[in-house]
Amino acid sequence: MSTGRARLPELKDAVMENDWVRFLVSPGLGIGWVFLFLFLPMTVILVISFSAPGDFGNVIYEFTLENYQRFWNADVYKNIIFESLVYGFVVTLLALPLGYTAGYFLGRSKTDWKWILLGLVVLQYWVPFIIRTYAWIIVLSNNGVLNQLLLNLGVIGSPLNIMYTNFSMILGLTVSLLPFMILPVYVSVSAIEEDQIHAAKTLGATDFRAFREITLPQSLPGIVSGVLFVFIISAGAFLAPTLLGGPNTRMIAPVIETVFILDFNWPFAAALSIIYFAIIAFLLYLFTRRVDLEEALETGAT
Amino acid sequence: MAFLELDNLRKEFGDLVAVDGVSLSIEEGQFVTIVGPSGCGKSTILRSITGLETPTSGEIRLEGTDITELPAYRRNIGLVFQDYALFPHKTVFENVAFGLKMRGAPKAEQRERVEEMLEMVNLEGYQEKYPAECSGGEQQRIAVARAIAFDPDLVLMDEPLSNLDKNLRTSIRSELRRIQDETGVTTVYVTHNQNEALSLGDKLAVMNDGHLEQFNDPETVYRNPQTRFVADFLGRSTEVRGTYHRQNGQAIAKLDGGIEMQVQPSETLADGDQASLFLRDEKLKLVDGSAPTENVLEGIIESVDYRGRDINYFIEVPKIGQTVQVSHIADHSTETFHALGDTVSVYIEPENVTCLPADDSQP
After folding, report:
1. Contact between B76 and A203 using a beta-carbon 8 Å cutoff
2. A185 vs chain B: nearest CA distance in angstroms?
3. What are the tens digits of pLDDT across the range B95-133?
4. Which are the contacts of A217, defined by CB distance < 8 A and separation ≥ 6?
5. Which residue of A33, A210, B3, B79 pairs with A200 in a disulfide if CB–CB is 3.0 to 4.6 A?
């Protein structure tokens, strides 16, 4: 045991000195990994999007703008992307105040229960998303828990039709994405020294002004990352619109899936993916320019 | 009527009594230091005065008005935090102007006042910098400027120098005193450092274990400590046990080792009481045989610590069973230094021997 402990640093040195290990973790190779797992698939999709569909689902590698022209000429796909972004916006708008409040109180709280509460926030991720989504069906369907409760209490006379609507999808998305808002806000709020708030109060700030002048600006990085997470994930949601949404719910991810799997039109599905990706990238660019992301992150770090 | 009055202030945190019935009166324009070891309740007192803590019982009065329950933001009291608590996302200007902004002062007035404040703390032109771009000493002075800029009734400082290195501490210490003289703002300064406590304040409050031990001007506290704690905490001294007596109008103590010493008269001790004698180390003098015969202790040099400018002798005194430390400025032209094992005589003047009631819990 004692010899083993003495040899541990040597072993560590030996591993760190090993040329192969150094090569595998070198920055140049890191960029290689990113390229391999991120840019290569994107490049493949990009190439396919400029190819023509064959008769039996195969891809004919001849350069064509046909897929993009099809998108441009039909309003339906534009509307679907627009609706997806609207759903993402609504979910983000709901998750922001709810998640900020929870993250703020977790960050400021000195209770011994904090770690348990934080555990509860992420607890739902122990359950696969698809099972959580089915749980919503049990709660919200016409003879589900919620309707039965309201019926038995006599609040309503007949079951409310809340399952398979936009409402149930937005509710499911908001609740399941809340941790993505809570956690970054929690991190940025808990990094603020309590004495700064005390200082603001001795200088004449009410609780509200101390919050607005000290806490809110310094938790901006948390808000920014929370908004980015929630918006991107909800606008691109796949399972929630499929399982919780209604006949009128149209979102881009299930549509792309349909084009891929049912229509077997890989080039058009690839073109839709590229267009959606470009729109999201452009929106993020506008958003981060507007909030000056770098400055927000910088002041949060000091 | 005193400017700031603490009346029987008490603060409990669960079972812990942080402040146990402290009463203190501070006059307008005074610089008062509160000194004590960590955990003695001095910071809790400060936070109660600002309104960041609510005392369990007792009253705080500012110019006769009870402010005990008033929220911090309505008190008009500046506080300099130990770790400065500057706002990292705001510039130096915004930091210093914060109190004025909260009071709705117009921009022009803010600019003028901030400039004046930064000039006072020797940080002209720092307006647009961020705290992270300033050194520790500069941040400290920004914190002082911020706490004074809105013209508070009272400024409190919570160990403001403890995060600075030693050289900086001394220079900023005198700067703080100068700033207080210039502005005349009533200041309460909390520290655990006895040098700061003695040199800074007009008045010195010594605290221990939630109690106020003594409150007076620093010289009086140092020369006439009222409790064993104060005698032990401020300066270096040797504690000896004996009995206190009054003979022919003179105060003397009979030490357990069988010698008699003349001591400073005590107000609290009666004839025959058990007493603790505190001999101030720096008042001990080496004398040769021809010098006074009273208050002389015979000892043997145990070790010598030559430091160039001065020389320290550690002298074992068998009669009191302790080693005392005598230091004096080394006079290289005339003096022959004592060597290890030499027998020497140590003298101390009666007024430098403080007699206090012995603590029975001590051996």
Report:
1. no
2. 17
3. 999 999 999 999 999 999 999 999 999 999 999 999 999
4. A299, B89
5. A210
- Measured between CB atoms, does A196 come within 8 Å of chain B? yes
* Interface residue B81 vs chain A (CB under 8 A): yes
Question: Helix axis angle, A266-291 relative to A66-73, nearest 10°?
Answer: 70
Residue B161 and residue B181: Cα distance in Å, rounded? 18
Three-class DSSP category at B31: strand
pLDDT digits (tens, 9 = 90+) for A122-158: 888 888 888 888 888 889 888 889 899 999 998 888 8
Average pLDDT, chain B: 89
Using the beta-carbon criterion (under 8 Å), do B99 and A204 form an inter-chain contact?
A: yes
| Chain B interface, best mutation among A188, A197, A203, A297, by max B CB count within 10 A | A203
Mean pLDDT calculated for residue range B44-50: 94
Residue B146 to residue B114: CA distance in whole angstroms: 9
Instruction: List helix spans (H) across chain B.
Output: 42-50, 92-102, 107-120, 136-149, 166-183, 194-200, 218-223, 228-233
Kindly report the pTM of this predicted structure. 0.81
Handedness of CA A66, A68, A70, A73 (dihedral sign): negative
Mutation test of the interface with chain A: which of B89, B94, B113, B153, choosing the one with the most A Cβ atoms within 10 A? B89
Cβ–Cβ below 8 Å for B87 and A214: yes
Chain B residue whose CA is closest to A218: B89
CB contact under 8 A, B73 and A198: no
Chain A nearest C-alpha distance from B133 (Å):
10
Q: Which of A199, A204, A205 faces B85 most closely, judged by CB atoms?
A: A199
Distance between CA atoms of residues A173 and A232, nearest Å: 12
* CA of B61 vs chain A CAs: smallest distance (Å): 17
- Longest Cα–Cα distance of chain B, Å, equals 76
Q: In what order do the strands lie in the sheet with B65-66?
A: B16-26, B4-13, B57-62, B65-66
pLDDT in tens, B271-290: 888 888 898 888 888 887 66
Instruction: Determine, for residues A198 and B79 on separate chains, whether the beta-carbon distance falls below 8 Å.
Output: yes
Q: Check: CB of residue B338 under 8 Å from CB of residue B301.
A: yes
- Which pair of tokens denotes residue B201? 């304040």
Q: Which two tokens stand for residue B158?
A: 């919570």
Q: What is the Cα–Cα distance from B68 to B53, expressed in whole angstroms?
A: 10
- Phi, psi dihedrals of residue B358, rounded to the nearest 5°: -70, 145
Question: What 3-state class would DSSP assign to B118?
Answer: helix
Answer whether B236 touches A (CB < 8 Å).
Answer: no
| Average pLDDT value for chain A | 88
A212 touching B, CB under 8 A?
Answer: no
Which DSSP state fits A211?
I
In this structure, what token pair is assigned to residue A32? 């290689």
Q: Which residue has the higher pLDDT, A223 or A133?
A: A223
Question: Are B81 and A302 an interchain contact pair (Cβ–Cβ within 8 Å)?
Answer: no
